[in-house]
Structures are given as structure tokens and as C-alpha cells.
């Protein structure tokens, strides 16, 4: 089994950006579990399934094959053989991913793949329930968060950089709704693991966050787990 670094936190906290950079600096494989749920959500949207149609989601879950491949160290998410990396970062897909992830069958399918990846290599894995459910024995657990206002600002900036008009108030509303769904779902809700380190990035730059996480991921001389609170 490889070394496991679990990064959890709410939508827009910067998990993917930081986890990808951290994995590169450590020489680990980055596993973006949110992208996997988004690929499944894209399939549901293409089928015309609504977020509240639980029975249709469960039925369609078995039809979608979501797999991961790595090219030049970068994760590629495949939906029924199609590379969908460039199609899964819209608000519509994100909202459907949050809504459909409450379905037990969806979570079971994704968790099986995620655990398999973590057994085969050293990984940095980010998501909503990695340290609490997917990899409860992870060597390092981090809960990354930021204020709703800051997360909305960052998301709006991402859209603007892509030439997409952004309504920051609507983005903040969507983030708050997703937070509530993620924290109150029946199966593996979003929460900070008891042994996870809280890192609030609201007033931190990306380099500052990277350095903080690198400190937490240092391997102690005795080969044991990191001393989180040193």
C-alpha cells in the first residue's frame, strides 16, 4: 500500500489546485475524486436526468463507466471511454455532482475505484469524505476551507479568466447550497476528520498554502505518521 495524503473540504476551497501541486512536488499521483463524481454527473445530465430523480440516477449509475488514466503525470477522467476533462467544470455539472453524490450506489462505485488507486501508489487524494470514509487510515489528513465569500470570488475569477461572465452572488448562493447538501447527506457527509489538520486559506496565497501542506506532509525520521501539531 502506498503513502496516502487525504485533503477534504467544501466546494471552491482550492483543494484541486493545491492537491495537484502538492502531488507534483512530492512525486505522488494526484487523484481528483471530485472529477470522478463530475464525470458521473455529466452522464446523468446527458441522459436528461434531474437531480431529484433518485431512482433514475441509481438505474443509470450502472450504465456509466468512469475510469482514470494518467498522461504525463496528469489525471485524465474517462466517461465510457471519452476523455471528459474539459467538460466537467461547469456549475451545472458541479451542482448535479453534489446532488447525485448522496446516492449510495454512486458513492459505492466511486469509493471502490478510489481505494484501488490508493493501494497501488503514493497518492494525494482530495474530495469531501477522503479522510473520514474513503481513506480513514491515511498517513496525513487535511481539512482545507475558506469563507464562502472568498470561495465565490475565486470561482468567479476562474470563469472570467476563461471568458465566461460570472455572477458572484449566484455563485456564492450555489456554494452555500452545495455546502449544506454535502454536510447533511446521509452517506459519508462532509466533515473534518478528528485527526485532520484544519487549514483556512481565506487570507493565504497559493504558495503559502503549499508550504503549509508540505510541512504537514514531511515524513518523520522514525518513519511513522506526520506529527500534525508540531
Q: Briefly, what is this?
A:
The protein is α/β, with parallel strands linked by helices and 230 residues long. The protein is 47% helix and 17% strand.
Which descriptors would you attach to this protein?
single chain; 230 residues; alpha/beta; Rossmann fold; five-stranded parallel beta sheet; three-stranded antiparallel beta sheet; 8 strands; disordered C terminus
Oligomer: single chain
Instruction: Quickly count the helices.
Output: 9
Widest β-sheet, arrangement of strands: 2-6-1-7-8
| Assigned CATH superfamily | P-loop containing nucleotide triphosphate hydrolases
What's the gyration radius in Å?
17 Å
Quick one: CATH class? Alpha Beta
Residue stretches low in confidence (pLDDT < 50, at least 5 long) are 220-230
- Give helix and strand order, one letter per element, not per position: EHEHHEEEHHEHEHHEH
Mean pLDDT: 88
Distance between the termini: 26 Å
Structural class: alpha/beta
Helix content: 40-55%
The overall number of domains is: 1
Q: What is the number of E strands?
A: 8
Percent strand equals 15-25%
| Biggest beta sheet summary | 5 strands, parallel
CATH topology-level fold name = Rossmann fold
Q: Please tell me the CATH architecture by its name.
A: 3-Layer(aba) Sandwich
The rough form would be described as: globular
Please give a structural write-up:
It is a single chain. With 230 residues, this protein is α/β, with parallel strands linked by helices. It has one domain: Rossmann fold (3-Layer(aba) Sandwich). Helix content is 47%, strand content 17%. The chain has 9 helices and 8 strands. It has a 5-stranded parallel beta sheet, with helices on both faces. Strands 3-4-5 form a 3-stranded antiparallel beta sheet. A hairpin with a 2-residue loop joins strand 3 and strand 4. Helix 4 runs parallel beside helix 8 and helix 7 packs across helix 8. The longest helix is centred in the middle third of the chain and has 17 residues. The two termini are 26 Å apart. The C terminus is likely disordered.
Amino acid at each position: 500500500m502506498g503513502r496516502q495524503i487525504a485533503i477534504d473540504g467544501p466546494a471552491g476551497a482550492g483543494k484541486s489546485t493545491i492537491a495537484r501541486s502538492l502531488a507534483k512536488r512530492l512525486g505522488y499521483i494526484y487523484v481528483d475524486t471530485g472529477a470522478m463524481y463530475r464525470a458521473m454527473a455529466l452522464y446523468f445530465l446527458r441522459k436528461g436526468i434531474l437531480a431529484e430523480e433518485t431512482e433514475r440516477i441509481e438505474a443509470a449509475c450502472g450504465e456509466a463507466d468512469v475510469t482514470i488514466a494518467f498522461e504525463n503525470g496528469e489525471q485524465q477522467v474517462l466517461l465510457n471511454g471519452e476523455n471528459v476533462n474539459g467538460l466537467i467544470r461547469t456549475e451545472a455539472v458541479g451542482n448535479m455532482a453534489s446532488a447525485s453524490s448522496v446516492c449510495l450506489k454512486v458513492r459505492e462505485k466511486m469509493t471502490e475505484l478510489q481505494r484501488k488507486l490508493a493501494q497501488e501508489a503514493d497518492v494525494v487524494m482530495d474530495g469531501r469524505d477522503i479522510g473520514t470514509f474513503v481513506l480513514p487510515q491515511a498517513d496525513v489528513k487535511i481539512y482545507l476551507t475558506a469563507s464562502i465569500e472568498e470561495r465565490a470570488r475565486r470561482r468567479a475569477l476562474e470563469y472570467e479568466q476563461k471568458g465566461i461572465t460570472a455572477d458572484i452572488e449566484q455563485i456564492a448562493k450555489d456554494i452555500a447550497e452545495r455546502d449544506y447538501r454535502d454536510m447533511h447527506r446521509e452517506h459519508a457527509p462532509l466533515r473534518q476528520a478528528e485527526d485532520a489538520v484544519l487549514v483556512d486559506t481565506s487570507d493565504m496565497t497559493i504558495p503559502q498554502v503549499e508550504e503549509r501542506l508540505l510541512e504537514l506532509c514531511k515524513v518523520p525520521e522514525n518513519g511513522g505518521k506526520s506529527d500534525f501539531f508540531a
